[in-house]
Input
Amino acid sequence: MKIGAVIMLMDIPVLQRAHTWPEIRQIGVNCEDLGFDSLWVYDHLLYRQKKGETIGIWEGWSMLTALAAVTQRVELGTLVACNSFRNPALLAKMAHTVDEISGGRLTLGVGAGWNQPEYEAFGFPFDHRVDRFEEALQIIRPLLKEGRVDFAGKYYTARDCEISPRSPRPQGPPLLVGAGKPRMLNLTARYADLWNVGYMTIPRSTEKLTKSLHKACQQVGRDPASLPVTYMISLAWPDLLGWNVAKKRGSLSGSIEELAMTLKEYEQLGAAHLMFHINPSSPEGYQRLAQAVELYRRAG
Output
């Protein structure tokens, strides 16, 4: 089972600011040195609270490209790219390019989007997001796998489109879809190489959604074993944060030894890859997760 870390690109509550690029670069290099299998970035443009307060975030693809250039081994991915922010053919072109820069280490994670305030702020249509996503997948997947497509739909058109040059991998970057609801799971079963869902905590929190994915696979005639499952997990270290994690829903917590045992439980459930959203996003936070990963791997 692979284990990765999310690099926070947004304003961090503990720091009261976003990480700078030198800090992000150092986190990426350190995570690679610590033995993580992968690094992931979110794809948002802003978060806006009900009171109108804005939480800022760096643009994810720009940072991911820079991380590809300063790391050597670790896999890289978007968790997940918002379909609405970019033309799907252009997104496929970007994925091939970053895969070239990284030497074949990219996973293209995509989703339909959900955060309405950023749509409104940047002028993207918020309607029919899953309809748009379904069309986009019919462009993105063949452009990743074969490098060409000829498609005309209601929302997107890519006529006689060809990607050249292409990724160093013959089949291009793997396509990961982030999904949790029935129609999105159906699209995942039809088009994805990998499935992701978050924010998970303890292993049993995944059971209902995983069963729903297997049902979607059966509906489209796909063997569920051919679609590896990945989970994004919210992890908190209360003593480093200064608040009681029990009062904050949706966060995994515990000692390093307990976390190592939890990793084993996820492996036994059949997880192929775990991506950890770590609070706080600090050197100590990543170090503790790395220690748990080392215990897990040492045990078997």
Remarks:
- The chain has one domain: 2-298.
- The CA atoms of residues 107 and 174 lie 5 Å apart.
